[in-house]
Structure formats: C-alpha cells, structure tokens
Sequence to fold (305 residues):
Amino acid sequence: METQFNQYFDHLYNLRVGVVGKGSGRHERPHKPVMLLAVLDLMDLGEIGGNRIEWNDCLRDRFAKIFEVVRSSNDKVTPENPFFYLRSEGFWQHVGKAGKEVLVEGLSNPPRKSDLADGIFHVELEAGFYHLLKDRKKRELFREALISRYFPDKQDALAELTIVRHHRVAEVSAKEVIARSAAFRKLILTTYDHQCVACGMRIRLPSGITMVDAAHLIPFSVSANDHPSNGFALCKNHHWAFDRHLITPDHEGRWMVSSSLEHRRSSGEAELCALEGERMLRPQEEIYAPSMAAIEWRASRLVGD
Ligand SMILES: [Zn+2]
Fold:
C-alpha cells in the first residue's frame, strides 16, 4: 500500500502536461493538474460518491474556477481536453455506457464538447488510486503535491477557493515526506540528466543509483514549492557547500563563492573558490531553470557578503 502511495505521488509529479508559449510566456499546460484538483474537490464535497467521475456541470464549473486562478493569459478553459487526455496517464480510464471501455479513438481529436455529451461515458480511476483517494488525509496530501509541484505560487489563492477547507495536514508521517521528496528528486535528476550543475559530475550505476542530489533553492519547509524551478542537481560536495550558503549562482547563472573561503587554505576550498564566475549548467527544458526569486533568496544569504 505504501509503495502504491509513493508510486502515485511520483506519477503526479511527472504528469505529461505539455509545454506551450514562447520566451518568458513559455509554461506547462495547467489542464491536467487542474482537472485532478477539481476531482479531489468534488470528492471532498461528496459530489463524487463512488469510483465514477461524470462529465457534468459540476465538474466543469469546478475546473473553471480553479483554472481561473492558475491560468496564464493564453490558456484556454477547455476541461474536455484533460478529461480526454488524462487517459494517457493510465490511472484515468474511460468507461462507456455499456460498462465497457469506450472506443475513444472514435472521438475527434481534440474532443468536441458534443463528443463528451453528458452520460456518453464516465471515468473510472485505477482501483488502487481510487482506494487511496477515498482516504481524506491521503487525498489532501495528493492535493498538496499537485499544488506544490504545478502551482506553488498560487497556494493562497487556491486555499481561499476551496469551499470545504480542511486544515492543512498537520501531522505528515515520515513516510509521506519521503514520498514527496523522492518525487521531487526524480523530477530534478531527470531535468538535469543526473549532472551536478556546478561541476558537471555525473556518476550513474547501471542499477540506476546516482551520486547526484536534488537540492531545493528555497527549502521546502519555507516555500512548499516543489516546482523544478525551485531546485537543481548537485553532487555531494557542492550540495554540502550550497546548503551552508558558501556557493550560489547569481541572476546570470554564474557562480558566486563566499568570501569566507580561502583558495590557499586547502585543496577542497581551492576547488570551491575556482567556481567563482563559472557558468552553472542549465536544465534540459529552459522553463525549469531556477526562478529569479529563488536565486535572489539564495544570493542574499551567501555567507560573508
Ligand atoms: Zn559538483
């Protein structure tokens, strides 16, 4: 059960959301996480009783309300898209009227609203996922995971929106913290292809074990932000120095080194000092590059400056 919880957690961090826009407007599509948040809300409200998600006004309204909060200007309110495309995630299954899997290939692509007319088919969640979601506390953890991963800067606005606001899960067990940090780690390591952004070191064994860590820029305890723009990959040595505010990138992605380090003192310090002015490795997707707010937060804490 615990493993399943971790797997779904991981899956929610790695939804195939797609990326749209150009330049500074480039962003991940919010549709899939918004649809999942809408479903969680309807479960809280008792609007979804069993494992049966209907395409109805209730779902569309909830989707629209959340979407309004998180959208970028060029995003379109199209709940039919995630209701359809979430099927590619495996846990979201379309079931036709007769109780069989509906032949969704017959629908136009992307689907028109008429394809999804009320009652033609509904969605069933994978049994294991639904079972976890029935537990209110787990549901809340999944909600927090979706928000911290996809909409970390909209946490307050989303909390206000939620009609039935449960208290933030006060007691999160150690296991659940591990699930969240494992999901973040996987996301960051993939984004940086297991390379340290300071020295480029990459050691990955055939078993998949890697020596590189995923580091938060603003710690999760402060930011509740697991978006990839709040993290990067560091080898053990650079992670240690980073956590102690001895090294940090500037707003142009060049390393700054604490004046408390002295290159003549020891070989380790000399190597850290040599980072000064070097370029930080960039992520594979530029939209996951460290956010300016996080960079500034770090820069203001560099020791000795
Ligand atoms: Zn390194």
Remarks:
- The chain has two domains: 2-161, 174-299.
- The chain has twelve helices and eight strands.
